[in-house]
Task: structure prediction
Amino acid sequence: MLSLSAFTRRFLADPTAIGAFIVVAALVAMAVLAPWIAPHDPYDPLQIDIMDSEMPPSWMPGGEERFLLGTDPQGRGVLSTIMHGTGISLLIGIGAVIVQAFIGVSLGLISGYRGGWIDSFLMRLADIQMSLSTLMLAIISLAVFSAAFGPEAYAQYAIFFLILVIGVAEWPRYARTVRASVLAEKKKEYVDAARIIGLAPRIIMRRHILPNTLTPVLVISTIQVAEAIVTEAALSFLGLGMPVNRPSLGSLIRSGFEFIFSGSWWITLFPAIVLILLILSINLLGDWLRDTLNPKLRRGED
Amino acid sequence: MHILAFLIRRSAQAVIVMLVISVIGFSIQDQLGDPLRELVGQSVSEAERDAMRDRMGLNDPFWVQYFRFLGNAVHGDLGNSYFFKKPALDVILAKFPATFELVIGATLIFVSISIPAGVYCAINPRSLLARAIMGGSIIGISVPIFLTAIFLIWIFAVELGWMPSYGRGETVTLPWGWPTGFLTRDGLAHLVLPSISLASIMLPLFVRLIRAEMMETLGTEYVRFAWAKGLTARRVWFVHAFRNTLLPVVTVGGMQIGTLIAYTILTETVFQWPGMGFLFLEAVNRVDTPLIIAYIIVVGLIFVVVNTIVDLVYTLINPMVKLPGAQG
Result:
């Protein structure tokens, strides 16, 4: 483990980490403050005028001061929709990771501590689920949900479905990470001591072993948020995610895509740049965190 | 003997996975599809409907209906597509060649680039080019596949007009009824952008994988021994080290089939490529339940078959792999 001051020192010595952190912090601040700083409210029908649709960015001929990055086909300012959309993307990304971590850490603890058939069963299930791939599982489950609920009801609760599906689909990554550290911790004396004084397995798992497995959980969480955001964007792009009237970055790109052919590139390009910046800087930050906190844990090795 | 036991065990596992998939497929049908609504109009009375329901076995218990579904599925009967009014399996399989050729195109691209790039990065990890490749790979991982596809269309199809932006172009039908785009100029031109998109997402993954495996092999005893024998660098790298890198790369690569299929859905959607993934999304929008289920089962089968073959190849080639009994 690293002391806080050593951690800060290493962080300040790495320009990539600082840059990535600044970008993430700026985007998060932009998303959180969107209701106050966005020039328009894209959810307020009174502020949307269809006459404003498909206007180019303000520096191009035909653009207007009011809409810095132009407008989309419905007449909403691209800048405002991006600000709000980033928030929805982040909300789903972080929400899904909380679900993943909760399920994965619990099952990983049980799997590692109990061993035996529970362990074999859970790990086999994890293997199969991982090889099916998150995106595939998510596409199929959401396709079934949207067919079952009908498009209207589905669009209303899309945010919960997305968090739930991306959360459930990725539990194996946490379970494996936690299980590996539990197996290492279980052999140590403090666990024997706890068992000898007669503590219940539940208490030993939660109070004694769990705190010692949290570093790798923290390390993978950063990259998991980036992956959850990509997955959400892909699902929304396919039309299985957030609806057009409450768009995430993915659904903004979806609604702008067909207008590329008529030359209105700004509707797609700006949300795309924000999405890439967000994912790239979270990934860079995650890679840095992994190298700093736990040089042994490598991405793709699990 | 061991191989036979392994084969039986692995096939049993494949069958179990397929059974689970079929239960899921059937429950979807049970929840979503009311076959009666598709067959009769509003004018039929409630009593008549009930009688028809009974005759069609729709009031039977879940398991009875499931086994009927399974029996039909084994014979290749997955019901008729509501939209196409044709057997769902035939509709899906007619789109298989398009998806398959897209995957082949992408594989050709990423294999021919990732092997030299990964090997180079492992041999010269500190060189400027290797760092640039590794830095590029993290950017590559961070750009979602549908954005790569959109950017390619925007630049090469819309702005420059060099490449077609959608569809498969002209195809030639091979004697066994397989329409191929590989034999016409137009077909090949249509294949370029979708293949690059699909390859772009697999490429960074494989560069990193090959680099990591190759570096590990370069640190082993037998490679050091090969150096000590005074073999040329070329021989050590390519005959001793690289060959042993291939095995884990093929295995991990084979395991990516689920991811690859998911990415074909995205690529096909952007390019309106008339493959299975594009068809599946259309089926979802039309709530064409038999077609949705047929897709899930066909994809599940492809997935299980590929995984079993990869496992088997791995077992046959690598004498060190643990056979059943020792933690399968």
Summary: Chain A touches chain B at residues 128, 131-133, 135-136, 139-140, 143-144, 146-148, 226, 230, 233-234, 237-240, 253, 257, 260-261, 263, 265, 268, 272, 275-276, 279-280, 283-284, 287, 298, 300-301 (CB under 8 Å).
